[in-house]
Design goal:
Structural class: alpha+beta
Number of domains: 4
Protein name: Putative ubiquinone biosynthesis protein UbiB
GO molecular function, one term: ATP binding
Pathway: Cofactor biosynthesis; ubiquinone biosynthesis [regulation]
Radius of gyration: 32 Å
GO biological process, one term: ubiquinone biosynthetic process
Shape: globular
Helix content: 55-70%
Domain Protein kinase: 120-499
Length: 523
Amino acid sequence: MMMSALRLLRILLVCLRYGLDELVLSGLKHPIASSLLKVVRLGRSFEQPRGERLRLAFESLGPIFIKFGQVLSTRRDLIPLDIADELSALQDRVPPFPSEQAMESIQKAFGKHPSTLFALFETEPVASASVAQVHFAVLHDGREVAVKVLRPGMLAVIERDLSLMSMFAGFVERLLPDGRRLRPREVVSEFDKYLHDELDLQVEAANCSQLRRNFEANPKRADLLMVPEVIWEFTSKTVMTMERMHGVPVSQIDKLEAAGVDIKKLARNGVEIFFTQVFEDGFFHADMHPGNIFVSLQPETLGRYIALDFGIVGSLSEFDKNYLSQNFLAFFRRDYRRVAQLHIESGWVPANTREEELEAAVRSVCEPYFDRKLSEISLGQVLLRLFQTSRRFNVEIQPQLVLLQKTLLNVEGMGRQLDPDLDLWQTAKPFLEGWMWDRIGPRAFFSQVRKEASQWSHLLPEIPRLVHTQLARQDSLPAMRKELAQLGKSHRRSERIFIVMTLILTLQAGLILWLVATLLEWQ
């Protein structure tokens, strides 16, 4: 309790230092808030923009708040763009923890000292972040590995800071006029989930293993992306051991060019990797910034991407993929009414939303892009603008789609850093069109039939028995006789009506012929 009180006091002091109290009060539309704002501004002036002040405050408050700022920067559907852009610059500048503690964690996890488990264990960490740090090692069979060790005592620190964040979120929701729409409690809850997933290295190892399987099974895919193999016998909730990957960060373009890597092809491959993960697998690496994406310089794998750090991944259901494919298809056709209908059909906007109003809003976002060169169009920005426009229609933006949009922005930024002329749409459109045809064309139909065939194989043999059982039921016979009698009556009634109608039509036809003949005689 004392630790929480001291932590709260430190948070309040940091907020005062960077004028976050002023930011909160300036957002309140109330006479008392205006008076308090005048008081807090006495003798204080802040030259930095609000986003920079918030970023500096998060950096001062330590690893958990830095991580929170990074997650918050992905929610561009909720926070102003200037703040989101500034928070996206947050980096985990965290010093490593003592190597002795890392070795103790490994021994606690596996019951043996690292010197016994490994033929060689480098005590000096090669990387350190807010949640874990990495050491290189060599297995007894000669394989080089990277050992990721969770920071000791992180769970208690995280639980303490999360409880304080939840308390602040409640204040924001109650006090700010826009508090409910910003959904601060939901944001903190989302951050809670991400953080607890990152604290369980077995979850990250499973993500890594799934991504590797998705690409390794297909030779064409294997030439695009390399994913390290998880060494499961040396992996637990607090320690993750994986194959050591050799490469350089994708941002080091000079080194890549010097090694003979085709930079333009590398940029296109990055786009293909992203869309393959999203639309074919529905499972994608959601933290694709240059620090987590390397490029191999080994002669046999030159120019292949290397994925690292699998703490944050995104998953899309069949409904999500179908929703996205139809939206892209409608967008390419400029069918904004269909885009509006998809939002309403999905249930993400209130049922009483006027379709034509939403259509007009979507048109105002999308139409300007068709008058620009494709290379100047940002698909991530289009999605972002759609999310922001949808906000006034009370659209419930799904977290997995926000994560997708954030990752798409990362991929676009990374691709255009490699090739400023990268035409994301031209690169992605053939892939998307082919994928959508596979989804809605004949191939999709027969694929679905094959998928359901195993279920039909169990049901089809039972149909004759079920029919016989139903027909043989004594209690069903009276009802069937009654229905047959009613059908017979209806049939006879229909016959009588048909006969009467035939007679009437025959008389009418005869009358018309008689009149025609009479008129001809008069002439």
